[in-house]
Design brief:
By secondary structure, the protein is an all-alpha fold. The chain contains 17 helices and two strands. It has a two-stranded antiparallel ribbon.
Amino acid sequence: MPRLQINQKLVVAVVYVSAMLMSSLDSTIVNVALATLGREFNVTPASIEAVVIGYLVSLAAFIPASGWLGDRFGTKRIFLIALAIFTGASALCGLAQSLNQLVAFRVLQGAGGGLLTPVGMAMLYRAFPPEERVRVSRILMFALIIGPASGPVVGGLLIERLSWRWAFYVNIPVGFAALAFGFLFLREHREPAVGRFDLPGFLLAGSGLGLLMYALSEGPSRGWTSPAILACALAGLLLLAAFVVVELRVAAPMVQLRLLGNTLFRSTLLVSLFATAGFVGVLFLVPLFLQEARGASPLSSGLTTFPEALGVVLSTQVVARLYPRIGPRRLMVGGMSGIATVMALLGLIDLNTSPWLVRLLMFLLGVGMAYIFLPNQAASLATISREDTGRATMFSSVQRQLGAALGVAALSSVLALVGPVQRDAAGAEVPHLAAYRAAFLAAASFAAIGALLALHVPDRDAVATMQPRPVRSRPREAPALEAD
């Protein structure tokens, strides 16, 4: 019996969005669950952070190999293996009986996640040609924006109504469904000449990124002058510097550093780095302010921040229509300037500010983010060849992880430096609003830098992605034959 044939664009979009929503939801749901996990395993907040750190370090270590593995062994095979690892590790996390077990399973989950994102993105960009990249960006929006925004709501409901184990079990049905669908309908793709596996490059890049991610994640809590943090940061930077030297001399490098010489690709990466830092930093800071300063529950906090996702969904429809006429540069400059303003306004909220005003500002933040991420994703790979797509998406994944870590680290450090609490006249501890305001201004600074960088994005190089979607005309009816 012949296998049912389904349009590959639809197949790739379904499996990619399913996998990425699962991955992005997982990170934010686990963050909501940390306090509960600390009580469950009877450990300190500093110890429970290993659940997040182990995942991030493993994720960073495996991302550099993703492009080569997908090109060599096939994107379908590697994507499905990564999805199986991530889903299986999620089940193991839910079954964990100790903190050590949970951390070990999170490391395994990070290995799957590190391969999942770049390989899936490479499949998506290969399925859609440059003139359809706006459609790709609409798909990516659901995975990259809506997932993190929905996480606090979903996590709050699961933890309050069921148990912390469902923060991991929730991945299983989605993962198995995507795995089965992908196994049946995805087509394989390999590149003909990828060279031998670059072991020195993998070891240098993986260990360097892992150490840097550890330093960025732990620096705010342990202190940037801590010997361990300084040693990890310095070692990570030195290993990455050695990686660059080695890769430039290898005949078949694992990471194609020459892709960074592409002006459009490089400029969009930089804009996305600062946009991600500001955006993820705010998604970290607003719930923290609502819960720590205003005493909101995790579920209430999640519902207050969720309008950001609605803003993205609604604004994306407008941006997709503007992009072919305006191009990426002006849209991104406007979007970065807009979110910088919103982030600065968030710094003005206090303990008595109406939750509806906070929701409105979060909605406007989502509106502005659509003007950045959609044009950025549509234009970034416009001048990247099909054979280099897998290596290019690896850079995008690294940039996203570093941007997120940088944003949270910077805002956490500002908050800690000023002090999130102070003593009132009676000697009682009260929230220190100046610390939160300074952190929001730091996020706005990231966005302002991104706006300046967006001025250098060359619209002319992205012209292939700016083709308006053709309108399908109805077929004309054949003229009737006249009777003699």
